[in-house]
Amino acid sequence: MKGKYMRRIGGIVLGAVMLFGVMLATAADTQAQSRRRRVVIVRPNPYRIYRPFGWWNYGYPWGYDRFGYDPWSPYGFRYRQYVFDNSEEAVEKGYERGFKTGKDDGKKAKSYSPQRSDYFKDAGFGNFAEYYRNGFSRGYGEGYKVGADERARKNAG
């Protein structure tokens, strides 16, 4: 009789210890998951250099040129292509880039959308943005027709 009760009590104690161990293990796992956070630091390239007294660049203080362009800013090199001396130059450059982009899209049978291009989107970071975008749209339309015609000729013959 005595052995029968000891087995039951031993089974209950063993079950309680196992349940306690499982609870302890899952609690430690959830704490470890909440502590594991990945932090990613993204620095612009080239990294901006601290210049407390500035560098003089052809008469413009702190490295800026006459358009307010900072060569050390993370966006300076990318958006400098959208700074123009006058509106005619902006229309001309926009037309050239639009024609090339439209011709490529027409050859590849992409949908007609000048607004999809990065040249069109990024023009707002420079001066004469509206003139540039008007020239780009006009050039894109003409280039798209030329590219689509080339694709049709290639497929036909």
What features would you highlight for this structure?
mainly alpha, elongated, single chain, 59% helix, 5 helices, 157 residues, 3 domains
Show unreliable segments: 56-60
Return the domain count.
Answer: 3
Please state roughly what percent of the residues sit in beta strands, choosing from under 5%, 5-15%, 15-25%, 25-35%, 35-45% or over 45%. Answer: under 5%
Spell out the helices and strands N to C: HHHHH
The chain-level structural class is: mainly alpha
Rg (C-alpha, Å): 33 Å
The helicity comes to: 55-70%
Largest sheet: none
Per the principal axes of the C-alpha atoms, what is the gross shape? elongated
| Total E-strand runs | 0
What is the typical, i.e. mean, pLDDT? 77
Multimer state: single chain
What is the terminal-to-terminal distance? 100 Å
**What is the helix tally?**
5
Write the layout of secondary structure elements.
Blueprint: H1 2-35, H2 76-79, H3 87-107, H4 118-122, H5 129-156
Describe this structure as you would to a colleague.
The structure is a single chain. The protein is mainly alpha-helical and 157 residues long. The chain has 3 domains: 37 residues; 34 residues, no CATH class; 72 residues, no CATH class. Helix content is 59%, strand content 0%. The protein has 5 helices and no strands. Helix 3 runs parallel beside helix 5. The termini are far apart. About 3% of the residues have low confidence.
Quickly describe the structure.
With 157 residues, this protein is mostly helical.
